[in-house]
Amino acid sequence: KINAVAERISYYERDLAALGGKRQQLAEVIVAFSGNIPATVDVEYSYYAYGCGWQPVYGFAADPEKSSLDFRQQAYIWQNTGQDWNGARVVLSTKAPDFRLAPGNLYPWTLYREEEAKPNQAVKMQESMMMFDEEMAAPAPAMRSMAKAAEQPVSMQRSSHLEWALGPRVIPSGTPVTLTLQEDKWQAEFYYTLRPSLGTESFVTAKVKLPKAVELSNGRAVFTLDKRLCGTNNNFSANSNEFELYFGTDDRVTVETLDLLKQRGKEGFFTTTNTFNWEWQFTVKNRRDRTITIRLEDPMPQAADSSIKIKNDSSPKPEKEKMTYFWKADVKAGQDLVITHKVHASASGEQRLIPGR
Predict the structure, then answer these.
(1) Element (H, E) at 157
(2) Which of 149, 216, 303, 315 could be cross-linked to 238 through a Cys-Cys bond (beta carbons 3.0 to 4.6 Å apart)?
(3) What is the per-residue burial (b if ≥16 Cβ within 10 Å, else e) of 90-124?
(4) How many CA atoms, within 13 angstroms, populate the side-chain half-sphere of residue 118?
(5) Residue that wins the pLDDT comparison between 131 and 45
(6) Three-state DSSP class for 122?
(7) Average pLDDT, whole number, for the chain?
(8) Is the pLDDT reported for residue 271 higher than 50?
(9) Closest residue by Cα to residue 112 from 123, 120, 101
């Protein structure tokens, strides 16, 4: 039993050592100088270390009563090199290392007549040589001086990505560090999004319009509403000045759907026209103690054939946006909003319409 326990202890010790990283000499660099040089020389070098990286972490705290949104962006940084980074100048990049220098060669596209069809010939692609310029990969002098002097994180837009200069930092090996990059308060329009074709619930929505676009690379986002956790999104990103954020459901705002009509038919005496008619009644119920704004959305039918004609006869009339019908309206406290949604589709010929819904 003692031997078994000793083996388990050794096993866990190896795991702990792996988490902390090992110091291991992988290469030795010898630099030769010629001519008159001072006694001491500053040398800069760069290399890629495995087992380190960072991930953006976003926080969105909604306050609908004040039509505001508190935004925070943090960086979750880790490194398992086996050596603590003490006073290291840290620059975060939103672009992962990619050594592809040029696009690959295109395959030839040849069309033959059916009787002249030839078997496909394998086209061999020669891989492009990947070249890497150490000087281009190293931080620019302006960034180096900025990182050295910066007390607060400073962002810099590059040609293909965004960089954050954090200045000198201490990043222990095996112990992740979370640093705040920026904080801001945004104004937002709040309303309730309802999609009756998917369910009865409503989702608290914040429509953000910023003076200029933000670049929020893929990361983890945490959403809170009135200081209550709503949920998380591990694949959040935004690259615009206008976008929507969702903060979970509100049981006091719902929608009920009543199917009034779903009917197939035919029209015409000399020529046959196949028809299909839908009619729904959407009832939005506001059980909150104040007036709210709702946005009800439903898919806009798309004709897969030019002979199919689609007509909308809803009341009130919907607006259209990105293949979607939507109605936006205010609903008073304790009141209902009724929408009658009618769609008529027709197609000439004997072939029947496939409704798709």
Answers:
(1) strand 154-157
(2) 216
(3) bbbebeeeeeeeeeeeeeeeeeeeeeeeeeeeeee
(4) 7
(5) 45
(6) coil
(7) 84
(8) yes
(9) 120
